């Protein structure tokens, strides 16, 4: 199954080296998903990652690294589904960003799991049909 890599996960991967074991497991998982040709990204996630980079050199370095991931197409129906999902969640008292719900709609409509560190997706998953990707057990050692 393909896996949509969320901004939170990519941000962690592009930070300066970390000694935290949890961070290293996540980075190993991203590398493995890329090697398996299972990693997917959408334009809004690419934009979020690059928008946080004020330094032009760092912007270019991250932009080049992201080129390994091709943007998957977002359709009008996905935007409409994102709005529907937002409305369903709001009725249940759960708020979220437009991009979060676009990620959910893209994921749901393509049967793709979401690899995220954003806990908001745990709340969405209780209400709307999305799958969340978990780091494989071999990376938990």
How does this model look, in words?
This protein has seven helices and four strands; from the N terminus they run E-H-H-E-H-H-E-H-H-E-H. It has helices at 7-14, 21-35, 43-51, 56-66, 76-91, 98-110, 120-125, and strands spanning 3-5, 39-42, 71-72, 113-115. The mean pLDDT is 92. It is an alpha/beta fold. Helix 1 crosses helix 2 and helix 5 crosses helix 6 (98-110). The longest helix is centred in the middle third of the chain and has 16 residues, at 76-91. It has a single domain (3-139), classed as 5'-nuclease (Rossmann fold, 3-Layer(aba) Sandwich), CATH 3.40.50.1010. 55% of the residues lie in helices and 9% in strands. The chain has a four-stranded parallel β-sheet with strand order 3-2-1-4.
Q: What is shown here, in short?
A:
Helix content is 55%, strand content 9%.
Helical proportion?
A: 55-70%
Structural class: alpha/beta
Total separate domains: 1
The first-level CATH class is given as Alpha Beta
Tell me the strand percentage band. Answer: 5-15%
pLDDT under 50 segments (min length 5)? none
The CATH architecture category equals 3-Layer(aba) Sandwich
* Biggest sheet layout: 4 strands, parallel
Query: Helix and strand succession?
Result: EHHEHHEHHEH
CATH topology: Rossmann fold
> Which descriptor suits the 3D outline?
globular
Give the total of beta strands: 4
For the structure shown, list the relevant keywords.
141 residues, alpha/beta, Rossmann fold, four-stranded parallel β-sheet, globular
Helix/strand layout:
Blueprint: E1 3-5, H1 7-14, H2 21-35, E2 39-42, H3 43-51, H4 56-66, E3 71-72, H5 76-91, H6 98-110, E4 113-115, H7 120-125
Parallel strand pairs: 1-2, 1-4, 2-3
Helix pairs in contact: 1-2, 5-6
